[in-house]
Each structure stands twice: as C-alpha cells, then as structure tokens.
Amino acid sequence: MKVIKAKTAGFCFGVKRAVDTVYEQVNTCGGPIYTYGPIIHNEEVVKDLESRGVSVIRSEEELEGITEGTVIIRSHGVEKRICDKLRGKGIRIVDATCPFVKKIHNIVEKESAEGKYILIIGNPDHPEVAGIRGWAGSDVSVIQNAGDIEKVDFSKNKKICVVSQTTFNYNKFQDLVEIIKKKSYDISVLNTICNATKERQTEARSIAESVDAMIVIGDKHSSNTQKLYEICRNACNNTYYIQTLDDLDLNQLGSVETVGITAGASTPNNIIEEVQNNVRIIF
After folding, report:
1. Is 128 a catalytic residue?
2. In which residues is isopentenyl diphosphate bound (predicted)?
3. Which of 194, 216, 195 lies closest to 205, judged by CA?
4. What is the pLDDT of residues 212-262, one digit of tens each?
C-alpha cells in the first residue's frame, strides 16, 4: 500500500511571500491592518489572520470608509485605480502582489501605452485577471475559451499582445494561442503562466496516471487548485477535491492500493500533512 505526495504541493513562492508579509505586519505594525481582498484563496489562513486582528476589505465601497491604518494588497494584485485610490487616501500601503503577477501588470501597461491590443487568457471573474485588466488600456479582452476569441474584433489591425493568468492550464493556453495566431499576423505571445504552476500541473498529472485514487487539497475558490482537480480527474476517475481532512471520506479509500496527494498553491503545509498522515493510518 502506498501514498505518494507531490513534491510541488502547497505554498508557492508568491503565496508564501504574501502570507509571511501579513504575519510580519501583525507582529510589527501598530494600528489597524487590512488586506484588500483575502490575501490568498484559503479560508483557513484568512480565518487565522482575522483572529489576529486583520480585517478583509471586500469592495471599493468598503475601502471608502478606511481612513487610517495599513492596507496590504493581496497576492493576486489589484487594478491600477485601486492603487491610485489608496495613495490618494494617504493610507500606508504594503504591496504583497506576487512578483510574477506584478510583472504582467508592467507588461500590459507598457504594451497598452505603445498602442497594442491586450488579450488576457484567463478567467474573467478571477481577481488576478481583474487586476491585470486594470493595468491595460481600453483595448483589452479576456479569453477563457475558443468562443471568446470569436468575440474579439481583429479588424482594428492593431498589434496584439497576449498574456496569461499565472495559474491557467498550460495546455489550454497553447491551444488558444494557436487559434489566435490564425486571426492576426502581428501578434506577440508572452507565456506568463508561472513555472511553479506548470511544474505542479505536470507532476499532478503524472501521479494521477499511476495511482488508484487521487486527493487534491485546496480552497474551493482557488483557481490553480480547480485546474489541478481537472487535470487529475482526467487522469484518474477516483479523484477527490477537498479543503480539509473533514471533507474526505476515508472509507472511500479502503479498497485502493495507491493514493496520490497534491495541493494548490495556497494550501498550508499543516493541512496537507494532516491529510497525508490520516490516509496512511487507514493503510
């Protein structure tokens, strides 16, 4: 009987940096502390920070009522107008945007200023994508599937710059880029999917193909965990998506010989270890 845990499971660099930043501010900063949006997509982490006095600002309307303290920008980043609004209020800002996301902000701002049409491949409802879009000009579209490409007006004859949400499925990104290339002759493609995301997806697929059951751990709102689940589910019918050990019915694993475990980039190590240890017990 064997349990295989992915080496890439758990906090990525950007998430760890963001979470560490908030805890450092809790320990060193006086006055109220806020994060603009949940610092990462993990309810357990957000609850722990709230127990330590960190409040989550969930909308621009809520931001209007903040007059003092420290506002920490979430790992997913925010729109340029939010940054400008924070600076205008004279509030202390701590930017915990993932450096890889910040790089995309800089790219789309520069390419937009040079007159290019920006195509963002990603989920339009995800905060990271909303943030990226907020650093582009007016000529910008978000593409999640082939149907979205058909809605883009390529007749403007503008140069096109393609970027991606850092946690997008790498294979889907390549497929969409191939379709876009057939629509325009003047296109630059910047694969801004984080290397850690690609490695995590590749390892998860490899493990899922070799086990009887696969467990994917992560918050239900975590985009990269949702992608991991899709990838694992395609490779292993017995795939379970859980947030914590409480969501897992261990009886379902009683007849399997090998179990794989992976976790999203915003899943704390203690949750992964708890699941791993309890799965081992039943074997």
Report:
1. yes
2. 41, 76, 126, 222-224, 266
3. 216
4. 999 999 999 999 999 999 999 999 999 999 999 999 988 888 789 999 999
